[in-house]
Predict the structure.
Amino acid sequence: MESYDVIVIGAGHAGIEAALASSRMGSTTLMLTLRQDSIGRMSCNPAIGGVGKAQLVREVDALGGQMGRAADCCGIQFRMLNASKGAAVQSLRAQVDMDLYARYMQEVVRQQDNLFVLEAEAKGFEARGGSLQAVVTDKGSFGCRAAVLCPGTFLDGKVHVGLQSFSAGRINEPAAQALAGNLALLGFRLLRFKTGTCPRLRRQSIDFSRLLVQEGDIRPRAFSFSTERLNTNQVPCHITHTNSQTHTIIRENLDRSPLYTGVIKSTGVRYCPSIEDKVVKFPDKERHQVFLEPQGHNTDEIYPNGLSTSLPEDVQLRFIRSIDGLEAAEVARFGYGIEHTVIDATQLDPTLEAKGVRNLFCAGQINGTTGYEEAAAQGLVAGVNASLRAKEKKLFVLDRSSSYTGVLIDDLTTKGTNEPYRMFTSRVEYRLILRQDNADLRLSRIGYELGLLGEAQYRRAAGKQEQLREAMRFLKDTRVKPGPKVNERLRQRHTAALRRGTTLEGLLKRPQVRFSDLRFFNEGIDVAAELEEQLELEIKYSGFIDRQRAEVERFRNLEKIRLPSEMDFRLVRGLSKEIQEKLERFRPVNLGQASRISGVTPAAVSLLMVYLKKYNAEQKT
Ligand SMILES: Cc1cc2nc3c(=O)[nH]c(=O)nc-3n(C[C@H](O)[C@H](O)[C@H](O)COP(=O)(O)OP(=O)(O)OC[C@H]3O[C@@H](n4cnc5c(N)ncnc54)[C@H](O)[C@@H]3O)c2cc1C
């Protein structure tokens, strides 16, 4: 049987990062896809990043992944969301040229050493003694040391348009039928989730003249820490709104909606509802915003963001044409809903390896998430671990204090999810420290040590760290004396005059003083523009940041206390039966993870700690 170190099933956003990571780490990797020409395809919106998601993209980049570089290369409009709010929630979003994005990824995959692509359908697995040996496909079986499963929305996918439904992985692509059954046979608990997409409109048929224009940022920022220059040929988006007539058409046709007639039973994406959901759930809202987003430079398709729907085609056409600017709109493709199978991700370790089937890792939509960025971040971690497993090395975990990726994976594997999971800044307890601007400082070293990040990028991050340290020292050590010129400047900034000397740091701590003002007080400041914002933030919020760092320290102490894999939780005296059963089922890997399982109380954690002390002492004797 032909054999590989790692087999990656799927060539979407998770599969690509997994396959690139594994092959870049030197493992011979086979990537399976149902269609070669759909590698890197964006199933839904033509955008990368956004609130909570940009942080994931930057982390993927800092670890040596591809998504950030692809978005920079294929971006057609860049905007910093929440620019007027705190840095912890600022997030970059880019509209991208969808066709270019897929072609870019296909080229990267094609050029990657150690990576082979086969158009084949994975149908099942061969496992022996609870450990994976081979992947069975319609083109034969392939042996492997580890596999990463990233089948996206394709697992038993069922597309709905009105009351019609048919089997598909997404529109015009077949579903993966056999795999879900085989996963159930391997002991996976399966759930059904639902998502949906908007119709696509023809650009020439839209009257943009009356619509609000939304331009990209004047000084666009890149996702990748290695991008030196962005293509600034940005395209505008336009904004329109639904109205009472749109809502009436939708309401009158709910008896033809698969969502409202009970045809779709699965749980949908709460934060990305269909237009019919919005109309029903917010009856008092007179209108909903619709962003008209171009899908690329060379396509005439426009994505009407906000109009996701699975209503019948004739209803879609009617409600679209009731919207300002869309009166004569022609539909290039109709919207649809899709139901698909996912696994209960609490059956995975924080390495993304299946607890019941060793050497099998899962990433992306199959773990209950929705979104390209969530998929990419998991794909990278799973690909790294599959490669490490193939080399019989210790696996790698990103914890909640290290990254958004760590939070995402911990949420999935510790708590699980009963609805499609999307990343948000609010899910991240240490978000003042885990920002999009410092992902390189947090993770580049790990990426470099794994063999994913190039020497130049790693050196750049290390150099930036050193510059920050020096600049911080300078701001702390450099004093400013009171005087008429200094106090006049402070008066202009609406802040109190100096009565005695202070440091540049002391001045920057004042909310009214910006970093750019400091040059007025001292001409010797020599700091790269990209670091100014970071320094300002670290100084202005130093009280909160220090508090979070102390919390992280406490958090890490609990994470360090490992729970032996053979541990019998029924022997821990004082634990309630319910908690014992929960711990037996979840099998947490450390005390920190145990403490986050719902229902596990602080008292139970103390009992575990006492038990472990005794257990470890006994092991030593
Ligand atoms: C209709 C629709 C609407 C969506 N709406 C949104 C949205 O509003 N917001 C949002 O954030 N996300 C949305 N998504 C989800 C987003 O597309 C996914 O989260 C993301 O693409 C998941 O990436 P992935 O790598 O897990 O899977 P995908 O990108 O779906 O890639 C799956 C890959 O697996 C391959 N594959 C599947 N089964 C097999 C098999 N048995 N053998 C070999 N290869 C196989 C496929 O060929 C494909 O290459 C939507 C998706 C769809 C389909």
About this structure: The mean pLDDT is 93. The chain is about 35% helix and 20% strand. The radius of gyration is 26 Å.
